[in-house]
Amino acid sequence: MKTGIPQGSGLGPLLFLIYINDLPKCLNAGTKPDMFADDTQIATSSDDIKVITETLNRDLNNVANWLSANKLTLNNSKTEYMIIGSKKRLSQVTADPAISVGEMASMPEQTTASSGYGAFTAPNYGTFLVFIHYN
């Protein structure tokens, strides 16, 4: 093994947390990360869905670059998102936002504006949950 920590190692979780500690630094100021072990959630909010889309695309591109620089890879096939908002706001979303990750074309369109749950995973990293809060 050239890189990594053997699975099941007693020090593995602690060393992993130290390894990923700087991930939140690649996010925009308005994006809030929530990290627990190898799972990460990022959330952003605005009253403008276009601003949300632009911010999230920048953040996800930054995350993809961070993963690459840290020798981790992104599994785009498991990348989805959830939009949270009032019934009135959600009714104004006529199409899924055009969200992309790194050089990947777009996230799977398995969620709708009114409901959905999503995550994206990086092998040996865990799960990312992306929440879009539409005020």
Describe the structure.
Pfam families: RVT_1. InterPro entries: RT_dom. The chain is of the alpha/beta class and 135 residues long. The chain has 3 helices and 5 strands. Strands 1, 2, 3, 4 and 5 form a 5-stranded mixed β-sheet that branches. A hairpin with a 2-residue loop joins strand 1 and strand 2 (39-46). The longest helix is centred in the middle third of the chain and has 21 residues, at 49-69. The radius of gyration is 16 Å and the shape is elongated. The model is unreliable at 107-129 (pLDDT under 50).
Largest sheet: 5 strands, mixed
* Percent helix range: 25-40%
CATH uppermost class: Alpha Beta
CATH architecture: 2-Layer Sandwich
Number of helices: 3
**Beta-strand fraction estimate:** 15-25%
H/E element sequence: HEEHEHEE
Radius of gyration: 16 Å
The tally of strands reads 5
Mean pLDDT: 71
Shape call: elongated
Distance between the termini: 47 Å
Low-confidence stretches: 107-129
Structural class comes to: alpha/beta
- What number of structural domains do the residues give? 1
Pfam family, one: RVT_1
InterPro entries: RT_dom
